[in-house]
Amino acid sequence: MEIRIEHGTDEDLDVIEQLYNDLLDVLETGMNYPGWKRGIYPTRKDALTGIVENSLFVARSGDSIVGAFILNHKPENGYDNAKWLYGGDYSLILVVHTLVVHPAFMNRGIGLQLLRFAEKWGKQNGMKAIRLDVYENNVPAIALYERCGYQYIQSIDLGFGHYGLDLFKLYEKLLSDVAD
To answer: For every residue of 39-70, which 3-state class applies, written as one string?
Structure first.
């Protein structure tokens, strides 16, 4: 599927919120691999923060937003305790947050294209690594990250046990091996 990826804008906010809600509808009626909860995460506020900080990217197919993610330099609490591959500070590290694909467009390679975009964008901007975390039972996302060459670092508690999310797997990809 041909998509273009660009920064999200204020005009996209309602559509992104609806994308989150459509995905949560599906997760609530089936297997909720990421463990996301309506009203908790992801929310309109998460998208708005990404837009304000110029860190939210959207994947468009024609006039439709079919996916999105936040790409910034903000690690989650607990990242500091991991033994990462790259030892530098976060000014040279991108962190992927809230990678979503609209349910009507799943299994069409959009998640893969979002990750490839992050890698290319990171390399073009002098970044050394990309990091992310994923709930330990999110089997589809883990398979995608590993297929894309992200290396498992370790599993940690990010403090979401009260939501039933005990452990998250940390992944990292060094950008020196990313093709132009």
So the answer is: CCECCHHHHHHHHHCCCEEEEEECCEEEEEEE
Average pLDDT, the chain: 94
Please report the pLDDT score of residue 180 as a whole number.
44
The answer to whether residues 60 and 88 touch, using CB atoms and an 8 Å cutoff, is no
- 58 residue type, one letter: V
Say whether 179 sits in a helix, a strand or coil: coil
Output 32-40 pairs: Cβ under 8 A, ≥24 positions apart: 33/135, 33/137, 33/138, 33/139, 33/140, 33/141, 34/134, 34/135, 34/138, 34/141, 35/135, 35/137, 35/138, 35/160, 35/163, 35/164, 35/165, 37/163, 40/163
pLDDT for residue 119: 97
Angstrom distance (rounded) from CA 142 to CA 150: 9
Which residues lie below 8 Å from residue 122, measured CB to CB, with a gap of 6+? 71, 94, 130, 175, 178
Size of the chain in residues: 180
pLDDT at position 179 over 50 = no
Cis peptide bond upstream of 103, omega within 30 = no
pTM: 0.93
Q: What is the pLDDT of residues 29-73, one digit of tens each?
A: 988 889 999 999 999 999 999 999 999 999 999 999 999 999 999
